[in-house]
Structure formats: structure tokens, C-alpha cells
Amino acid sequence: MRKPIIAGNWKMHKTMEEALDFSDKVKGLVPSNGQVETVICAPFLFLDRLVRGVDGYHIKIGAQTMHYEEKGAYTGEISPAALKGIGVSYVILGHSERREWYNETDEAVNKKVLSAFQFGLTPIVCVGESLEQRNKGETNRHVESQVSKALQGLTEEQAKQVVIAYEPIWAIGTGKSSTAEGAEEVCSQIRQTVKNQFSKDAADSVRIQYGGSVKPENIREFMDCPNIDGALVGGASLKPDSFLSLLEATVHE
Ligand SMILES: O=C(CO)COP(=O)(O)O
After folding, report:
1. Origin, by domain of life (predicted)?
2. Which residues are registered as beta bridge partners of 103?
């Protein structure tokens, strides 16, 4: 059985004060019976305080990107070793906003995925097509290529632990989510890609999230799909009430 994983991606929102206020409000209220894995992916600056603040409260903390090198002359960057050192558990890699604005190529994403495992971080690898690609019927080919390039060189054990987030670019921040059927179709194809690249075991274990305008009102539709194991949530993860409602909806069928 794959454990559902709900991850909030705060993107470039909140001040330190707001971040700590959020974690104080939710930490005693997230489901604690192991039915769902809860992750908050926050800006770098807040990670250390958040890790310490939620210790013992069934919430894991993730970063939103990282460099692939352990250290070096990369002004402004953050290393996997530094993240691991403060107790960060997850790292989002290859988010479409990073691919678009910060030149995060498939090759760089692959290096980061390998490096994340080397330093004991679990990658959440984002893939997804643009509206133009969708309209041209290129969704499956594009997503398959992103997945296979990102996971290249992983061991089967590592492939089992990866989290893949299918986020169609046209559904991010638009209020226009994919239909559950549409998301399920692509997520099922992602699982098939992992099977072809690694094994049936790896495909059965890998967790696949849907992301793109997920809200408390629609999350259940996605969670009911056999190949969707959770959600990566932007806007609806920013308010404590809304974040808690997402978790509630996930654990109550
Ligand atoms: O990009 C996303 C999460 O990584 C999705 O953002 P929204 O939930 O705001 O559409």
C-alpha cells in the first residue's frame, strides 16, 4: 500500500512571522495516525525554524529546489548537504516555474535527483505539459521523456522512494484543474514509464501526486483515482484552515 502524501508548496509566499504562525496553528491538528504523510515545502530562509518548530508533530519539511553539488563557488545557491544538515526531508525538483524562469533542464533535474539521494533527501520530481503541448497531443510523449530523464541512473530502491508530481502547467495557479480522469490517465502512464525503466516493483511503490489548482473541494476526486497517491498544492496550502481541510479530505474517504 502506498501512503498518500500531501505537500504544500508555498512558493515565494510568507514572511518568517507568517511561516511560524502557520506552523504553530496546524502542528497539533494534522492527522497523526499515519494515514497521510504531510509535507510543507517552504522558502529556504524559514526551513531551519520550521524543522525545529514541527519536530514531533507528524509534519515533514521540504525545500523547493537545491544545487546538485555538495559545496562550491555557486553564489546564492543552497547545497543538499546544508539542507540535510538542518533536518530537511524533501526537496521539490524540476518545478515548471524553475524550468521556465531558472533554466532547470532535464539534465540538471537528473543531477539534482541523484544528489538528493546521495544526501538522504527525498525528491519530489515535477513533470507536466504546457497548454500548447497538450493541444498538439504531445502530453504523453513529453511527460514520459521528463520522467525517464529525471530518473536516469537511479537504483531500483531509489526509484521506489521517489515522489513524482504530475503538474500540467496550464492548471497551475489558474483555478482550472485537470479533470480527475485526465490526471489519472497521465499518472497511470507515468507509472508505466517507471515500470519500463525499472521494474513492476518500483512502479507499484513510486508515489505519484497530482498538482494544479487542487483545493479542499476537489482533492477527493483526485485521491479516488487508483494511480494518484497525493497532491502537490500551491495556493490552497497557504492558509492553515485550507491546508488542514486538504489533509482531512485525504484521510476521510
Ligand atoms: O504549482 C503548484 C504546486 O507545486 C500548484 O499550484 P496551485 O495549487 O496554486 O495551482
Report:
1. Bacteria
2. none
Rounded to two decimals, the ipTM of the complex is 0.99
Q: Which three cell numbers stand for residue 3?
A: 501512503
> Best of 41, 98, 232, 245 to mutate for ligand 1, by most ligand atoms within 8 A of CB?
232
Helices marked H in the chain — which ranges? 16-26, 44-53, 80-85, 96-101, 106-118, 131-135, 139-150, 156-161, 180-197, 200-205, 219-223, 240-251
SS3 content of the chain, % helix, strand, coil (to 5): 45, 15, 40
pLDDT for res 242: 98
List residues forming the annotated binding site for substrate.
9-11, 173, 213, 234-235
CA torsion 61-205-125-186 (nearest 10°) is -130
Q: Kindly report the CA angle at 57 between 56 and 58, in degrees rounded to 5? A: 105
Instruction: Mark whether 157 is an active-site residue.
Output: no
Report pLDDT for 252.
Answer: 82
Assess whether pLDDT exceeds 80 at residue 36.
yes
The answer to whether residue 58 is catalytic is: no
The dihedral of CA 217, 220, 223, 225: what is its sign?
negative
Q: Which of 37, 144, 167, 221 is catalytic?
A: 167
